[in-house]
Amino acid sequence: MGVDLRPIKAVYTADVAIQISPSILSADFAHLADEAAAVPTADWLHVDVMDGHFVPNLTLGLPVVESLLKATSTPLDCHLMIEDPDRWAPAYAEAGAGSVTIHAKAANAPVRTLREIRKQGSRAGLALNPAEPVEPYADLIGEMDMLLLMTVEPGFGGQKFLDLVLPKIRRAREMLDDRDASVWLQVDGGVSDETIERAAEAGADVFVAGSAVYGAQDPAGAIESLRAQARRAGGRD
Ligand code: DX5
Ligand code: ZN
Fold first, then answer.
1. Please, what is the average pLDDT of the chain?
2. 78 CB contacts (<8 Å, ≥6 apart)?
């Protein structure tokens, strides 16, 4: 038995209505521990893993995630924008990430991989890009703990929220409410004071925000402002 490095703050099965997951993509990579400490009220820390192939950007990988796990008690929400997640995703779960999300179109065996992630004790997420329909994944809802609908094309922070995803958020919310309302519905990309209300109104309940949090003078205050707006608009809290 090795030392259990899993974060203690996580309540993985909590039925929390609105959650904010600041993305460290917009943080200072040279001071990640400090940047994590700057957002003590964050429900998660969103970690964007990019491999330079699935998306045209390269960020960080498992060694950095392992170090970050030791540096913060906030659970990590690892968003894998990588090719071949079937091969790599289980290791993030095994390392102690609270949540591991793979992209549907990158996975050859999404059911097996989602099950592997859960078997390692993490929440399993499935992500769809803006142009990908949600309907083909209806039968996979029982295999996931979170559905991530990208509200920008993945790869970079600071992009504009794509309103064209709003109808899909509504359809996904209906689908989840029909089949398994305990599955969280996350949006990622362009979430800010200007856009969070419409995403929450459409039915999202977990909000990734990079530039809106780490680009703010007061990151912790930005989180509370986002949370308050989402609560008001979503009526899910
Ligand atoms: C984009 C990443 C996002 C990104 C969001 O591919 O998945 O998590 O950090 O950044 P903002 O909130 O600035 O759009
Ligand atoms: Zn992300």
1. 94
2. 47, 49, 65, 92, 97, 99, 100, 101
Atom 6 of ligand 1, residue of closest alpha carbon: 154
Residue 158 Cα to ligand 1 middle (Å): 7
Q: Which own/partner pairs from 100-105 qualify as long-range (CB within 8 Å, at least 24 positions apart)?
A: 100/124, 100/125, 101/77, 101/125, 101/126, 101/127, 101/146, 101/148, 101/186, 102/126, 102/127, 103/54, 103/127, 103/128, 103/129, 103/154, 104/128, 104/132, 104/137, 105/129, 105/132
14-27 pLDDT, tens digit per residue, is 444 899 999 999 99
Homologous superfamily of the 19-233 domain (CATH): Aldolase class I (3.20.20.70)
pTM for this structure? 0.94
Ligand 1 pocket: which of 25, 49, 55 to mutate (most atoms <8 Å of CB)?
A: 25
The answer to whether the CB of 186 is under 6 A from ligand 1 is no
Active-site residue, selected from the candidate residues 43, 77, 188, 205 = 188
Which residues lie near ion ligand 2 (Cβ < 5 Å)? 48, 79, 188
Confidence of residue 91 (pLDDT cuts 50, 70, 90): very high
pLDDT digits (tens, 9 = 90+) for 46-62: 999 999 999 999 999 99
Tell me the domain boundaries of the chain: 19-233
